[in-house]
């Protein structure tokens, strides 16, 4: 299959993060302890958040470059070859002889609709292993630099180690916008997020970080803690996504909590607003058809206020829990400090415009596997930022690409090609 960006002057983007191999076993139901069962299907594919997102972006027509590290083994050879075949430039994919490449066992439960991942990390990417001149060359001329939240030791700047070439600092120096993904609590991720112009989170991350019951308040904490960030985009699975974009305070309407604004917008969406159900994606000779969901937004800026202030003890407990969770996600050889959660930050009023998008609908085809759906949405977000799409169009495209991905087993086979997507979405 030729790369979607082959033979064209495509827009350059850069991804920094994990690339690996996925071993996917599809089973009728999740096994009980000591139980033996047969797989219904077995696939071996490229994986890793960054690798998956860049593959999605390449299929949409961008020219992605990867900055990552894998082992000097045959798995590493396959990781590089698959990315290159998709149109991802691997000049920044470092190889570490004597170390295994990262891989993940994934159990796809067809009955319960779940997928369980058992990950084995690869070598730690040390800051001094990243050549500053090479990073400048790769980052230069790109529209966006994306970080998947892994490899934070090499991604961020620690001024006590001036010899280390840290990618986020270099991207900021050359003026390239930075997109940071926060999927899980990880060491130093809150520091990396401080460089972000755009934040992209999983459904659980804001509340895992803050310990707050309110998703809206948790998102406000993120915006308060990271004033450089222009927006926070949070994916919500079957419930679509929410984007909160910081605006100038002038002209803001009445005060409201973010939860109340989202609830009101969702009522509009459920009532048929937002122009959903039209354009989408058709593939496999019409065997798979996906239609875009609707997107609604506030008519202008709204002054968002926290719903309530938590007590100091609750905040301290949340911060401690987040720090423990980040530590548990550390890889062997990673620093054993710097697990700052950011969960003790106060939510302050923010003037913003709020967007709520519905999930895309699969008209023909079945949901076979949700592995990598968030990565598919991320690849679409990269495309939207690089192309300057309006926020609602970017969210609508992300929902279509993510839903289409779910119609095949694994993170990459179901990713649509640009030619399969309605031009209205691009």
Describe the structure.
- This protein has 426 residues and is an alpha/beta fold.
- The protein has one domain (12-255, 367-425): Ribokinase (UDP-N-acetylmuramoyl-L-alanine:D-glutamate ligase), CATH 3.40.1190.20.
- The protein has 12 helices and 19 strands.
- The protein has helices spanning 49-59, 74-85, 132-139, 152-155, 167-173, 189-193, 205-210, 215-225, 258-270, 312-328, 373-387, 391-405, and strands at residues 12-16, 20-27, 41-47, 63-71, 89-96, 103-109, 114-120, 145-147, 178-182, 198-201, 231-235, 241-246, 255-256, 280-283, 288-291, 295-297, 302-304, 350-357, 361-364.
- The strands form 3 sheets. Strands 1, 4, 5, 8, 9, 10, 11, 12, 13, 16, 17 and 18 form a 12-stranded mixed β-sheet that branches.
- α6 links the parallel β9 and β10.
- The longest helix has 17 residues, at 312-328.
- The radius of gyration is 21 Å and the shape is globular.
- The two termini are 21 Å apart.
- Residues 157-164 and 336-342 have low confidence and may be disordered.
């Amino acid at each position: 299959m030729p790369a979607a960006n082959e033979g064209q002057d495509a827009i350059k983007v850069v991804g920094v993060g994990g690339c690996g191999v996925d071993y996917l076993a599809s089973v009728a139901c999740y096994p009980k302890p000591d139980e033996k069962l047969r797989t219904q299907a077995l696939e071996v594919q490229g994986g890793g958040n960054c690798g998956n997102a860049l593959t999605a972006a390449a299929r949409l027509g961008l020219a992605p470059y990867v900055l990552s590290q894998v082992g000097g083994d045959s798995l590493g050879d396959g990781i590089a070859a698959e990315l290159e075949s998709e149109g991802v430039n691997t000049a920044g994919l470092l190889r570490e002889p004597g170390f295994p490449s990262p891989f993940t066992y994934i159990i796809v439960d067809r009955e319960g609709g779940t997928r369980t991942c058992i990950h084995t990390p690869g070598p730690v990417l040390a800051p001094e292993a990243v050549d500053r001149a090479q990073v400048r060359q790769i980052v230069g001329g790109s529209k966006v630099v994306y970080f998947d939240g892994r490899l934070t030791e090499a991604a961020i700047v620690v001024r006590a180690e001036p010899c280390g070439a840290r990618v986020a600092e270099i991207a900021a120096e050359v003026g390239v916008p930075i997109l940071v993904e926060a999927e899980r609590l990880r060491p130093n991720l809150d520091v990396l997020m401080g460089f972000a112009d755009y934040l992209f989170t999983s459904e659980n991350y804001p509340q895992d970080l803050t310990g707050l019951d309110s998703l809206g308040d948790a998102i406000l904490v993120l915006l308060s803690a990271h004033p450089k960030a222009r927006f926070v985009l949070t994916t919500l699975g079957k419930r679509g996504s929410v984007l909160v974009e910081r605006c100038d305070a002038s002209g803001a309407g009445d005060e409201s909590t973010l939860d109340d604004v989202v609830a009101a917008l969702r009522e509009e969406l459920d009532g048929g607003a937002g122009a959903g159900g039209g354009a989408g994606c058709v593939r496999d000779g019409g065997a798979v058809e996906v239609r875009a969901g609707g997107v609604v937004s506030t008519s202008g800026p709204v002054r968002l206020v926290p719903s309530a202030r938590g007590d100091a003890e609750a905040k301290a407990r949340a911060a401690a829990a987040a720090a423990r969770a980040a530590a548990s996600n550390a890889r062997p050889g990673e620093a054993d400090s710097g697990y700052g959660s950011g969960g003790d930050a106060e939510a302050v009023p923010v003037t913003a415009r709020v967007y709520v998008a519905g999930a895309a609908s699969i008209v023909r085809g079945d949901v076979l596997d949700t592995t990598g759906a968030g990565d598919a949405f991320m690849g679409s977000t990269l495309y939207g930022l690089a192309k300057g799409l309006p926020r609602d169009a970017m969210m609508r495209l992300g929902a279509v690409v993510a839903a289409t991905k779910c119609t095949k087993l694994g993170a990459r086979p179901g990713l649509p090609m640009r030619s399969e997507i309605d031009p209205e979405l691009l």
